[in-house]
Amino acid sequence: MKYDLLTKFKDTYSKEAAHAFFSPGRVNLIGEHIDYNGGLVMPAAITFGTYMLVSPNDENVFRFKSLNFEEQAEIPVSSSYQKDGDGWYNFPLGAIAHFTKDGHKITGLDILFFGDIPIGAGLSSSASIEVVTSFALNELFNSGYSKLELVKIAKSVENNFMGLNCGIMDQFAVAFGEKDKAIVLNCDTLKYDIVPSNLGNHVLAIINTNKSRKLVESKYNERVEECQAALKSLSEKLDINYLCDIDSATFAQHKHLIADETVRKRAQHVVEENDRVKLAADTLAANDLANFGKLMYASHDSLRDLYEVSGKELDAIVEYAKTNPDVAGARMTGAGFGGCAIALVKEAAFDKFAAELNEFYTNKIGYAPSVYQSLIGNGVGVLQTT
User: What role does it play (predicted)?
Assistant: First the structure.
């Protein structure tokens, strides 16, 4: 096990860890701002994630400790639980609360978490914690939930216990991810396909802009409202429930129904991005990284020009990527206005790419990005403790 966590658990609790689990973070390869428009996204699990080591105790308490945070908690076993301030441990506590509310008897546990997901990078560390805790509880107490049910529990923890609005993509990706494969997920029906995504001699570069994103929530809600306005206008002539119910050709025929130019641009991005996901699945399945990279660049351009959720930091990363022959493609990923970009980079050239990007970005923006190397990894699972 990475990082010798078994020894750290013993140092922390003066006993051996009885069980160990891992859940990854995720990136969305393509299909941005689609989840609330009834369309397709293409996330993949990464090789960074959350480790959870557990041993039962007979003291009727849950002990939450992390190697990432000084804050820790000891909470008595109860028949119901409430959120306890803003501590990180509320994410696993929320999972325990859900299992308990469903009638499962969850007894005392000593738990140690460690995450190597870069903090603040927008790679779904919260979903990783929620899923690994739900998965572990299901295993330890034979609760009988399917993996999809665990995904829904994890989402409920985020929405109802933590009070944070999110879709289901993050939890789904970290639960169902497979090595060297992406997921094409319909966010409305939850139907999905697994797409072979062997990157060959390329790796996934994850680039954190290191920009504060204080306006994301308000801008996000604004985009949701604009999409709803576009849908209302198109529904005057088309029988649709979501923008992604139509393709680019149908949109081109009916876009005149949307009077507001800004709203029309938002809808154009959504419809065309949904089509790009379908094309991307075909190109990845055919090991055609060159054309997949072109789709990544087209996605970023659309998010910059039509959806207007990029920014100078994300644009600088993609601008540099386009000049580097060792990069197949790059784009912003996530909500935008900062956060992360991703790029497909030849593994042999990764260090050179990271150094040159660092210099280009720092000269243009004024401070350095953080650049990480990852592969497409497995979803949540059990780790050996011996």
Answer: Catalyzes the transfer of the gamma-phosphate of ATP to D-galactose to form alpha-D-galactose-1-phosphate (Gal-1-P).
User: Any known ligand binding at 33?
Assistant: yes
Kindly list the domain boundaries of the chain, sorted by start residue: 2-196+377-383
| Residue 122 to residues 57, 93, 182, 252, 365, Cα–Cα distance (Å) | 34, 22, 18, 34, 20
Is pLDDT above 60 for 215? Answer: no
Across the range 290-294, mean pLDDT stands at 97
- In 3D space, the residue among 7, 18, 23, 20 whose CA is nearest the CA of residue 377 turns out to be 23
- The response to whether 143 counts as a known ligand-binding position is no
**Can you give the pTM of this predicted structure?**
0.92
78 is in an annotated binding site: no
Q: Which residue has the tokens 């990029």?
A: 310
Is 35 a known ligand-binding residue? yes
User: Do the Cβ atoms of 261 and 22 come closer than 8 Å?
Assistant: no
- Give the model confidence (pLDDT) of 230-284 as tens digits: 999 999 999 999 999 999 999 999 999 999 999 999 999 999 999 999 999 999 9
Distance of CA 306 to the CA centre of its chain: 23
Longest dimension (CA), the chain: 69
81 is in an annotated binding site: no
11, 86, 102, 170: the active-site residue: 170
170 catalytically annotated: yes
